[in-house]
TrEMBL record:
GO terms for molecular function: NAD+ poly-ADP-ribosyltransferase activity; nucleotidyltransferase activity; ubiquitin conjugating enzyme activity. Residues 283-294, 948-958 have a biased composition (Polar residues). Residues 275-302, 695-716, 937-961 are annotated as: Disordered. It is an enzyme of class 2 (transferase). Its EC number is 2.3.2.23. This is E2 ubiquitin-conjugating enzyme. SMART domains: UBCc (SM00212). The keyword NAD applies. InterPro entries: ARTD_PARP (IPR051838), Poly(ADP-ribose)pol_cat_dom (IPR012317), UBC (IPR000608), UBQ-conjugating_enzyme/RWD (IPR016135). Keywords: Acyltransferase, Glycosyltransferase, NAD, Nucleotidyltransferase, Transferase.
């Protein structure tokens, strides 16, 4: 119970105040507590971590260790007190008691410490502590110079060396201003936090719209990015803006210049979000990780000023904070590229005495060939006094993001032709240390996020690995994973016990007290029952006794001289109590399996040594600990042990339900999963290099055909009965461009008007684990190569479906007899077949009859994956499948009408389509830029100073935005019925007070900003009822479908009505559109406007409302919803001139809330239909 109690106490501590201790959270180390210590009187703010050396001793006599990355000087030096303080922590204290003790003790230590004037050098928390001992050796950084480290020992707050972060002196303000103006000239959006005139900001934000980078839409989807979002780099200068020489001389683990890279719905995050990113709970979490019903973006309304992590935030932040200054020094010193600088850094880390020779720059795009011209300039090689550190850092971050699949995310070594090359998602190289860092340092995806938001994909991935293991088709067993497994071949290490017939309780006989004392709650072990099978089917081939010859009828087994011994039955169990209570109660996590003959004999011999007497209801058994690694086993036993471990992974549905009920907890905190299970599951999810999205729901079971007649499927987009369709994307971001170029070559030659064709690829289930990780290739021969080397495809689904059946591809693991398929699977996949698009250069194929054989991997792109599911699958799985709305395409893929992918039927019907056009990239000119607050730059223009000049003249920042026209004060308020003051107005003092403050805040904002910058307007003079406002949303971008509709109809604003109840701000307001009418969702509309005009947002219900939200943010949220493109808000051209009424708005609001499971405010009736 110690572990459970520890996490319960930690959860309680998060809600408790401890004076100087705040931001309490789980530490980065296992069984650790991280927190922030702050003391305003001392100008001290720093993070610490408390590690419990043995959590099983929690409240019983535990020992502790304190660590921190902060090293102050003089009276703020805490490093000398850590060891003594660690020893003084109450050994039997709870988390709350320990934190209260540390809060008081640190305050006393800092107050009474004698300042001797020396700078105390405190080592940062070593990354090697995250690693296994096998991989931690030699991880020190040889580049850290002692002199530089002493000269630039950095702190976030120090009385003698500058004020706390919130009050930084204006050191280098002029240099910062020049650097930021240069970044602005490169088309980056600059934000200052806080935005105060002529003051050095605490944080700086640089942003760029995602769409500007020119990445394909499928890549953005796979990376969790939207074209309308912004990539944001936050910067915190702890000691003013440094010179380039000072910045390049910083040690590796510096705190002088700190970065956070992520994404945001708005071009500038809030100051609270920025502060949280640097001083809060560490890395910002992925969005929607706890959404109980994750749907499309129309249901996902988040704070637009929130700063969120993207898929590369963790590794990029690490490089920015620990390596960028060194890489910049190497780049400038040897005039080389970023890629070469990474290679030089790796060489120096390996051998500090390496004689590095100057290297050529080489041909390398600064970010990517599709990046904006303004960012193709190599600003890192400018003259020393012209280098803009923020601009260089943003270029570097964007480069690492766009090219994340080209190099190992841990060591940055080029992937070459190895495991991760040419894939859609980033991964690591083949070095065990890199894999360990990828999983342990949070470089990979969050398993909690994936289980909640993509449960069906997780279920499918586990099934694929299990199938690969059981059919010996797995190409790479993850030997570097720190997972523990039992070894039944070492029976002498096991403990002899008695187990009941249901595997729920164990009794430890005399003689095994040492093992008994080691048992802890939550521990896994393998229980081998040697008596349960004696009366059941024997294990053939095991010598026991010689049976007489029996010759009988056809149903009698002939056993002439065959030796038979009953099999040993094993199961994986988890201890639910320690041995101090006598019997050990346990839960069986797996099914029961039998053991191979050789292991059976050794297990029986071990048990017989104890001569246990028979006892009714109890059998003699052997218990084996999970104490071996995969490296210690033979190849066959490795696969068997991996499969055994996978049988213990709980069903994905149960894991998801637990995470939804415990949104702030990690999966590793659930008592159903062991650490080894979490590590294995993390690797399964993280090593998936493809993008799989189920886009078709399972129909009624009655529609399922006979699996043997798969060639009689219907055609079109209705799907294939009995198969679940996934959108299946593979390949690095540049592979699609290579594919398109190859297809364009076909058009250029004029040999055919069909540049691509579609074909099927079928492969046994055991192969798909490798295919989704490394892509289609022909490195392994599964069915012979009768028609040459290459990828085999067929224009007929029935043909490829034959090859998707499991043919003998290797022996099953012999150590245990386990089922062929993962028993906890929800989908229960039987086979899989991919629909691929292929460049139509048949003359260059290896073969075209009877199959297509293509030896050019870049000519084949997977588009869909059809997975045949088991008979037991029900429609309940459809709740996991997000219904994807069909988007109108601006073009089509031309195909010959004779194409018959589904054998007797054509796959699709020819339809007229517009010519394919490419969208014009629009650049933001954010008029709300804060940069002018620092004062004008020394020059009226900021010319390009980069090493590589862009083609043509330098772009200038546009001062005109194409917005819908709007003139304030032109709305005819008399056309909107007035309402009297509500009956609760006089008695709702809190609501009146808050609403009065909100009106003042909105008036102040409108007085200081141009109405075009705001995008909303409230006529303050017309407010005669604080509980009911009329708001206009206006100045929409004309490139939006909504903006074009407004211009076409002459609409200048979207008129909203906002009503407040007596419970405001504890209950949300009611927001609806008055005019114009919008196209409803059922007819392809969007913008979060319901059929009755009410705004459909969880934010405006009890489920999502926060009393701390300002009305400015609410209005901005509603406006952002109208600007979304998936699906886009459109005006109903046939219903113009008709206003929405309150009755239809309320009914539509209630329907939307019920459909999403949102809670409606109790006062909805009185503040809408019963207003009086």
């Amino acid at each position: 119970m110690s572990l459970k109690k520890f996490y319960r106490d930690l959860a309680l501590a998060k809600t408790t105040s401890f004076g100087h201790v705040s931001s309490i959270r789980r530490g980065e180390l296992e069984d650790g507590i991280a927190f922030t210590y702050s003391d305003e009187s001392m100008n001290v703010v720093f993070d610490m971590e408390l590690v419990i050396r043995d959590v099983t001793e929690y409240t019983k006599g535990a020992t502790f260790m304190l660590v921190t990355s902060y090293g102050g000087s003089g009276k703020t030096d805490v490093s000398e007190n850590l060891q003594a303080l660690s020893e003084q922590i109450p050994a039997q204290g709870t988390v709350c008691e320990i934190l209260a003790f540390l809060s008081d003790s640190l305050a006393t230590a800092l107050t009474t410490h004698c300042d001797d004037g020396d700078i105390s050098q405190t080592s940062d928390f070593d990354e090697a502590s995250f690693m296994d001992e096998d991989y931690a050796d030699g991880w020190d950084d040889p580049l850290t110079a002692t002199d530089e480290q002493n000269n630039h020992n950095i702190r976030l707050a120090d009385n003698n060396n500058g004020p706390a972060p919130g009050n930084i002196v204006n050191s280098g303000l002029a240099e910062l201003k020049s650097a930021l103006y240069k970044a602005k000239a490169a088309r980056l959006i600059i934000g200052l936090l806080p935005a105060e005139p002529q003051q050095f900001p605490r944080f700086i934000s640089l942003a760029i719209r995602v769409s500007v980078l020119g990445l394909p839409s499928d890549v953005l989807e796979a990376w969790g990015l939207k074209s309308g979002e912004y990539l944001v780099l936050l910067i915190h200068f702890a000691n003013g803006y440094p010179s380039l020489a000072r910045y390049q001389a910083l040690p590796e683990k510096q705190l002088d210049v700190q970065f956070r890279f992520g994404k945001c719905a708005a071009p500038k995050p809030s100051q609270k979000a920025a502060s949280q990113a640097f001083f809060g709970t560490g890395e910002t979490r992925q969005s929607s990780t706890t959404s109980e019903n994750p749907k499309s973006s129309e249901d996902d309304m988040i704070d637009p000023s929130a700063f969120l992590a993207n898929h590369m935030s963790a590794p990029i932040n690490r490089q920015l904070n620990q390596s960028l200054h060194t890489l910049l020094r190497l780049r400038r010193g040897y005039r080389t590229s970023w890629g070469t600088a990474h290679e030089l850094l790796r060489r120096l880390q390996t051998d500090p005495d390496d004689d590095i020779q100057p290297m050529d720059v080489g041909e390398e795009a600064i970010i990517s060939p599709d990046a904006p011209e303004a960012l193709k300039v190599d600003y890192a090689l400018d003259d020393e006094d012209q280098v803009s550190i923020p601009l260089v850092a943003m270029q570097f971050a964007l480069r690492q993001l766009v090219r994340c699949t080209e190099s190992c995310v841990a060591c940055q070594e080029s992937m070459g032709e190895g495991l991760g090359s040419g894939c859609l998602k980033p991964y690591v190289c083949e070095k065990p240390l890199c894999l360990y860092q990828y999983l342990s340092l949070g470089f990979g995806p969050s398993i909690e996020h994936e289980i909640i938001n993509n449960p069906l994909v997780v279920d499918f991935l586990v099934s694929l690995l299990y199938s690969a293991v059981m059919t010996a088709r797995i190409r790479e067993v993850p030997l570097a994973l720190a997972v523990k497994v039992p070894n039944v071949n070492k029976a002498a290490r096991g403990a002899v016990v008695r187990v009941n017939e249901t595997f729920t309780s164990v009794r430890v006989p005399f003689g095994n007290e040492i093992w008994k004392a080691r048992v802890r709650t939550g521990q896994l072990f393998l229980v081998a029952d040697t008596q349960k099978s004696e009366s059941q089917s024997p294990h053939p081939g095991t010598p026991q006794r010689r049976a007489p010859a029996i010759h009988a009828g056809p149903h009698v087994v002939h056993t002439d001289g065959i030796n038979i011994e009953p099999a040993v039955e094993v199961a994986v169990c988890r201890a639910d109590s320690d041995a101090a209570t006598g019997s050990i109660h346990m839960t069986r996590l797996s099914g029961t399996f039998t053991v191979a003959p050789a292991a059976t004999s050794s297990i029986r011999s071990r048990v017989q040594e104890f001569h246990l007497s028979k006892e009714p209801g109890w059998n003699s058994a052997l218990v084996l600990d999970f104490d071996d690694t995969l490296l210690s086993l033979s190849d066959d036993d490795q696969r068997a042990s991996l499969a055994l471990l996978m049988t213990c992974i709980p069903p994905v549905r149960e894991m998801r339900d637990w995470l939804l009920k415990n949104p702030e907890r990690a999966l590793s905190e659930w008592d159903r999963v062991d650490r080894s299970l979490v590590v294995l599951l993390t690797w399964i999810i993280a090593s998936n290099r493809s993008h799989l999205v189920p886009d078709q729901q399972i129909p009624d079971q009655g529609a399922r055909p006979n699996p043997q007649t798969t060639h009689k499927f219907t055609h079109g987009d209705q799907g294939v009965p009995g198969y679940l369709r996934f959108r299946f994307l593979q390949g690095a971001p540049g592979k699609e461009s290579q594919f398109e170029k190859a297809a364009q070559h076909v058009n250029a030659k004029g040999s055919t008007k069909f540049p691509t064709i579609f074909a099927w690829h079928g492969s046994p289930m055991g192969n798909w684990h490798s295919i989704i990780r490394t892509g289609l290739d022909f490195s392994t021969i599964s069915h012979g190569r009768a028609y040459g080397n290459g990828i085999y495809l067929s224009p007929h689904m029935g043909t490829s479906n034959t090859y998707s059946r499991d043919h003998p591809g290797g022996s099953r693991p012999r150590l245990y007899t386990m089922p062929q398929d993962w028993s906890n699977a929800e989908l229960s996949p039987l086979s899989a077949i991919s629909l691929c698009e292929v460049v139509n250069r048949k003359k260059e194929f290896v073969s075209t009859t009877p199959h297509y054989v293509v030896n050019r991997i870049d000519w084949v792109q997977c588009r869909y994956l059809y997975v045949e599911y088991g008979q037991a699958v029900t429609k309940a799985i459809n709740e996991w499948i997000v219904a994807q709305k069909k988007q109108p395409f601006k073009g089509y893929v031309p195909q010959a009408s004779s194409t018959q992918l589904l054998d007797a039927h054509e796959y699709g019907d020819a339809e007229h389509a517009d010519e394919l056009t490419s969208e014009e990239i629009s650049y933001d000119d954010w008029s709300g830029d804060d940069l002018e607050l620092l004062g004008p730059d020394s020059a009226t223009e900021c010319p390009y100073q980069g090493e590589t000049k862009p083609q043509g003249s330098a772009p200038t920042l546009s001062t005109e935005r194409r917005l819908t026209p709007y003139v304030p004060g032109t709305l005819d308020l008399s056309s909107i019925p007035k309402l009297p003051e509500p009956s609760w107005a006089a008695s709702s003092s809190q609501a009146l007070k808050v609403l009065s403050r909100e009106v003042k805040d909105l008036h102040r904002i409108q007085s200081t900003m141009h109405f075009c910058e705001l995008g909303w307007s409230v006529n303050m003079e017309a407010i005669d009822n604080l509980f009911r406002w009329i708001v206009e949303l206006h100045s929409f971008d004309t490139s939006l479908p909504l903006g074009r509709d407004m211009i076409r109809l002459g609409v200048t604003s979207i008129v909203l009505e906002v009503r407040f109840g007596a419970g405001f701000p504890m209950s949300p307001p009611f927001v609806r559109v008055v005019r114009p009418r919008f196209l409803p969702f059922s007819r392809g509309g969007g913008g979060h406007v319901t059929m009755g005009g009410a705004i459909c947002s969880e934010l405006l219900t009890n489920s999502g409302w926060l009393p701390t939200l300002s009305m400015e943010k609410v209005l901005l949220q509603v406006r952002l919803g109208l600007c979304e493109l998936d699906p886009a808000a459109r005006l109903d051209l046939s219903m113009q001139g008709m206003d929405y009424n309150i009755s239809e708005a309320v009914e539509a609001y209630k329907r939307a809330a019920a459909a999403h499971g949102w809670q409606i405010p109790a006062e909805m009736q009185e503040m809408t239909l019963s207003w009086r």
